Amino acid sequence: MPTTIDRTQLRKLADEGAQLVEVLPHQEYEAEHLPGAINIPLRQLDRTTTAQLDKSRPVIVYCYDYQ
Amino acid sequence: MSPRAAWRLESLGFTRVFDYAPGKLDWFSAGLPREGAMAGVPTLGTVARRDAMTCRLTEPISEIRARMPSEEVRPCVVVNDQRIVLGLVRTDALKADGQRTAEDVMLSGPVTFRPNVSLEEMASYMEGHGVRQALVTTSDGELLGMASREDVEKRRAGS
User: Fold this and answer.
1) Does residue A63 have an active-site annotation?
2) Could you tell me which residues come within 8 angstroms of residue A28 by beta carbon, excluding any fewer than 6 positions away?
3) Average pLDDT, consecutive stretches of 10 residues, N- to C-terminus, chain A (67 residues)
4) Interatomic CA distance for residues A59 and A56, integer angstroms
5) Would you tell me which residues 6-45 of chain A have a C-beta closer than 8 angstroms to some C-beta of chain B?
6) Minimal Cα–Cα distance from A56 to chain B, Å?
7) Tell me, what's the pLDDT at A65?
8) CB contact, 8 Å: A57 with chain B?
9) Strand pairing partners for B108?
10) Could B7 and A2 be called an inter-chain contact, meaning their C-beta atoms sit closer than 8 Å?
């Protein structure tokens, strides 16, 4: 079950090597995103697009807010 | 959207999945670094002066006045140990009896703004509401600084 985290926990996990994934559409990612985040829009989330992620490391997903 | 993405990742075999539900709005409103095409566009956080004068609830007005730079009288932000904004002592309130405390004369719960507010939006609000100073805080209420209408207009004009 995915764990919901806050900003402080995100920073701690990122320091430990977590991978950050913005799941918003590409245009929104291009405009502004968190440092080091990659973009895989929700609709494109599949085995092919996630092959770039390391399954042995934590993955943090985010969008704009609680939507 | 991110909860569904997190569950989808789990269905794809990822076992350590976290959902930063507050999202990038939370990150940007905390004044944290941004990347991307718009990251360099100045925002309220860019122009906020970090040297805003602060005081505690119990500080006497006479002591606040004594700490005030001689060349200008500035409003003083009332904060706690965590720098959470509790109130604002306006310049006219600094003329009060020196024995009174910041808590006695402060404006409670002053309006605050997030650092990711655009300068256009801020300028429009300041003009529409006759506001001369904007308190800038994180979404948690922590003081980041204070921006004057002059600061906002100057930056918008590119100077």
Assistant:
1) yes
2) A22, A64
3) 94 96 96 96 96 97 86
4) 9
5) 6-7, 9-10, 13, 18, 21-24, 29-37, 42, 45
6) 8
7) 83
8) yes
9) B87
10) yes
Q: How far is B72 from chain A (nearest CA, A)?
A: 38
> Poorest-confidence range of B21-30, B57-66, B137-146, B150-159?
B150-159
Q: In whole angstroms, how far apart are CA B107 and each of B1, B44, B150?
A: 39, 22, 23
Take residue B15 and report the two structure tokens written for it: 């076992």
Q: What is the pLDDT of residue B157?
A: 86
Q: Which residue has the tokens 């985040």?
A: A37
* Burial category of B33 from C-beta neighbours within 10 Å (exposed 0-12, middle 13-18, buried 19 and up): exposed
Query: What global pTM score does this model have?
Result: 0.78
> Nearest Cβ partner of B12 from A2, A36, A47?
A47
- What value does the mean pLDDT take over residues B34-63? 93
Catalytic residue (choose from A63, A65, A66, A67)? A63
Annotate B55-86 with DSSP letters as a single string.
Answer: E-TT-BHHHHHHHS-TT----EEEE-TT-BEE
One-letter-per-residue 3-state SS of chain A: CCEECCHHHHHHHHHCCCEEEECCCHHHHHHCECCCCEECCHHHCCCCHHHHCCCCCCEEEECCCCC
| Structure tokens that stand for B82 in this block | 């965590």
What ipTM was reported for this prediction? 0.96
Task: Mutation target for B interface from A1, A5, A7, A67: give the one with most B CBs within 10 A.
Answer: A7
